[in-house]
Amino acid sequence: MTELEGQTFAGFAVTKLLGEGGMGSVFLARQAVLNRPVALKLMAESLGKDPEFVARFQREAATAANLAHPNIVQVYQAGEHEGTHFIAMEYVEGETLRHHIERQGRLDPTEAVAVTIYIAQALQYAWNKTKLIHRDIKPDNVFLSTSGEVKLGDLGLAKRADISTELTRTGVMMGSPHYISPEQAKAKKDVDLRADIYSLGCTLFHMLTGRTPYEGNDALAIMNQHVNGPPTAIFSVWPTCPVPLGRLVGKMTASCRMSGTRATRSCSTS
Fold it and tell me: Residue 148: left if φ>0, alpha if ψ -120 to 50, beta else—which one?
């Protein structure tokens, strides 16, 4: 969709392509009415013909538009223009956490913990406000601004825990293999905030060690380790990890049973 560069779309002057993903493309654009830069997300044309994907795309906009938190990417506008569904959101000038990790190799523990706290606060706010769970916490969806802000974006897989929907029915796995919680990998329907804590724990593991907790040749093999494999102790990868920090990672990535006794997974070191 690079042909949109230099064109006007639904009142937005499109500048350049920022990236492409499974659901469509994201462009840097300027909103003419308010003269501000935005990240303009356009759904792929092929998906626009699928009512299920359209509903998922619209849910992302409706969910994010109701959230106002300094650590969550703000949604400005959503709609449809000439058959293409779009979302205009806050443009975060900087880089993703993934790019930051790739440059650094591994992060200083102080920085890694700070990023984790900011994202945990965003998740807690979303949970308290609307019982929202993100379902796809990973370094690609964490944005680091040039001014030092940490923001959580891409609520495309988000859902409210108190609302049943066919888009998240049992048997449909949602999430990213390297960071997915065991209950999501098993396509459980009754997923709650603990799934996001697990994924955030895997992200913290990645920040601290420069690698993900589980590795494999394909997505299925990696997800199987999340479900059936023993927890990867951070001390086996980073022997000198401070004990309280290692304990925190262990609690965040603890196995979570969705029935029976309540899981101990948490963000607390106590």
Answer: left
Residues 6+ apart with CB under 8 A from 184: 135, 173, 174, 175, 191, 195
CATH of the domain at 228: 1.10.510.10
Q: How far apart are the first and last CA of the chain?
A: 50
Q: How many helices (H) and strands (E) does the chain have?
A: 8, 11
188, 216 contact by CB (below 8 A): no
Reading the block at residue 41, the tokens are 């997300």
Let me know if residue 270 belongs to a domain: no
Helix, strand, coil share (%) of the chain residues, nearest 5:
40, 20, 40
| pTM reported for the whole predicted model | 0.85
- Options 136, 140, 154, 196, the catalytic residue: 136
* pLDDT tens profile 35-46: 999 999 998 877
Last residue of a domain, one of 57, 73, 90: 90
Please give the biggest Cα pair distance in the chain.
57
136 is catalytic: yes
Express each pLDDT in 85-135 by its tens digit: 898 999 999 999 999 999 999 999 999 999 999 999 999 999 998 888 888
Identity of the amino acid at 65: A
C-alpha Rg value of the chain to the nearest Å: 19
* Statement to judge: residues 111 and 72 lie in one domain: no
Contact (Cβ atoms closer than 8 angstroms) between residue 188 and residue 227: no
Same domain, residue pair 216 and 111: yes
**Last residue of one domain, picked from the residues 54, 75, 90:** 90
Could you tell me if residue 260 is inside a domain? no
Write out the two tokens for 46: 């092929």
